Amino acid sequence: MQPKMKRNIQRTIAQICLILASVFFIIPFLWMVSTSLKPITQVFTFPPEWIPNPFQWSNYVDATQYIPFFTYLKNTTLITVLSTLGVILSCPLVAYSFAKLEWKGRNVMFAITIAVMMIPMQVTMIPLFLLFNKIGWVGTPLPLIVPAFFGVPFSIFLMRQFFMGLPDTLRDAAKIDGASEFRIYWQIMLPLAKPAVLAIGLFQFMNVWTDFIGPLLYLTDETQYTLSLGLQQFQSQKGTEWGLMMAVSTMMTLPIIILFFFMQRTFIQGITFSGIK
Is there a smaller number of Cβ atoms within 10 Å at the N or the C end of the chain? Predict the structure, then answer.
């Protein structure tokens, strides 16, 4: 067998395996969308009916009326956008100092940053709550936004690995031209790290958009609830209305799918590339 033919066969087998694996991930989403368009009488029919008959589009309208959906959507969007902005501003700057700057205690501080990643959230949950309660932030969205402006360990680690793959000759040449360290970071290094920056931004967006524990701990006013809390509230009030609950779930999931669809190429580059072409 010729090497080219062998590579084509291996590539075809790999693609078939990936397609089969993707089916297991997409079936629950398709079932959620299908259920969101069904009348209640078709939800538990056997054998299952994948195509609703008829399509009950009113489920989406009714779902937004049972809970203040657009208020929750506004709250979720505000918290998610500000938190993502905080990560994009803080993590690359910290990571650049770990990767390119020489300062006393750098390796120790980076080791501590990595160690923080190993601490389960359940361990820090109570101390953080007591801290935010002491400064009067409980009952406001500040505990969900402000910490992001001080960095996220995983995002710092990811950005550091990317910056370490960038050649030092770029930084040296800029220094010879008289550029300051911050200007080197802002105008040279950061634009080259755009794929990694967008990757950590997407990670943060997904984590905050779907976060349930954080809003449950810190938000006490119902007018400040996020979509995740609203979905739980809807389930407790209208648990048997599966079509309506799946409609809310679909509307909550759709923004993440759309965002990933348009950013998937850059996202994959940020994860896999560790330098410049």
Answer: C
DSSP states along 149-176: GG--HHHHHHHHHHHHTS-HHHHHHHHH
Q: Is 176 within the bounds of a domain?
A: yes
Spatial CB neighbours of 124, under 8 Å, sequence gap ≥ 6: none
Over residues 144-182, the pLDDT tens digits come to 999 999 989 999 998 998 898 888 888 888 888 888 888
Range of the domain at 92: 68-268
Q: What angle do CA 182, 179, 181 make, to 5 degrees?
A: 25
Rounded Cα distance, 101 and 171, in Å:
11
Residue at 59 is within a domain: no
What is the length of the chain? 277
Helices (H), the chain: 3-36, 58-66, 69-100, 106-117, 121-134, 142-145, 153-164, 168-176, 181-184, 190-192, 194-209, 213-218, 227-237, 242-272
d(CA 180, CA 27): 53
Helices 242-272 & 227-237, crossing angle to 10 degrees? 150
Q: How far apart are CA 14 and CA 8, in angstroms?
A: 10
Coil/strand/helix, residue 118: coil
What pTM, to 2 d.p., does this model score? 0.83
Handedness of CA 45, 47, 50, 51 (dihedral sign): negative
HSE (CB half, 13 Å, CA atoms) of 77? 8
Domain at 199, CATH number: 1.10.3720.10
**Within a domain: 193:** yes
- Counting the structural domains of the chain, the total is 1
- Whole-number Å distance between alpha carbons of 73 and 270: 28
Distance CA 98, CA 78 (A): 30
